[in-house]
Structure formats: structure tokens, C-alpha cells
Amino acid sequence: MNGLGARADKNEEVNKSQRGYNVRVKDLKKIHRAAAVGDVAKVQRLLLLGKDVNKRDKMKRTPLHLACTIGHADMVTLLVERKCQLNLCDRECKTPLMKAVQCQEEACVTILLEHGANPHLTDNFGNTALHYAVAGENTSIVEKLILYHANIEARNKFELT
User: Fold this and answer.
1) Chain-centre distance of CA 85, in angstroms?
2) What is the pTM of this model?
3) What CATH fold (topology level) applies to the domain 16-147?
4) What is the pLDDT of residue 5?
5) How far apart are CA 130 and CA 97, in angstroms?
6) How far is CA 11 from CA 2, 64, 104, in A?
7) CA nearest to 96, candidates 68, 75, 125
8) Diameter of the chain by CA atoms?
9) What gap in Å lies between CA 60 and CA 91, rounded to an integer?
10) What pLDDT, on a 0 to 100 scale, did the predictor assign at position 78?
């Protein structure tokens, strides 16, 4: 275990498939599929047809979760402009902000924070977005989270700050 509640290899590295989602396209709704591939025009059409911007898939992920994980900043901007809920949790109780941080998608992190994403929420292991930024050794994202008042004293279930 790496202190964040995830298994890590002997070098304590977390690869992209562990950080992101294992996505099975056949399990995704149309809006999730379009968000995951960054098809802004298709998501716009689906929203005009009345699709729910906060629709969840089998893993409780929203289109915003998928866009943040893959780093589609244009898609994140569209979803935010369409008033998606920024702080919904997936099955692991991770918010889109946590996933963007975990996958080191700084542009997505910035968009979310600028629009009011909550950096204080915790996942199933008590980790905040700041825990993931520190674990990923991304000082730029750490600084950004602190600028948005992330709690530097927050402890996860392993008592790590």
C-alpha cells in the first residue's frame, strides 16, 4: 500500500491506468463516451437534446470525472459552463478534482478550482486532492490547491498529511 490506500509497485510509482479509470467503452452512456474522447460538439448536441449533464455510469462517474481524468480541458469548460455539479463522487468517493489531480491534469484542476470545486472533500481513504498532489510530487498543483485554501493539516485514514 502506498499510504493513499492503493497498491503500488516496488518503486511506489502509480501508473496512468491505476490513476485514471479502466474504461470499457461498451459500458459508457453516449454522453460519457463523448466526454471521454473530448467530443465537445457531440456533448453539446446531447445536452441540447436534454441529456443530464450529471448523468452517472455504472461506476457512478459523471462526464466531468471522465473528462478530468483524460485531461480534456475544453470539455471540462463546457460541462462547467453548463452548470454540472463539481463535487459529485464516483464509486471510490473521488471527485472530479481528485481525479484531475491524481492524473496530473493541471489545466482541468485550474478550471475546477476557479469555478468552486471543493478541495476539502475526502475519498474512501480520507485523502483530499492535496494528498494526491503531494503523492504525485506535483508542486505546481500543490501550490494551486493551497492558494485555494486546501487544508495542509488534513489527515487521511493512515494519519498522513
Assistant:
1) 12
2) 0.87
3) 1.25.40
4) 55
5) 10
6) 10, 31, 19
7) 68
8) 49
9) 5
10) 99
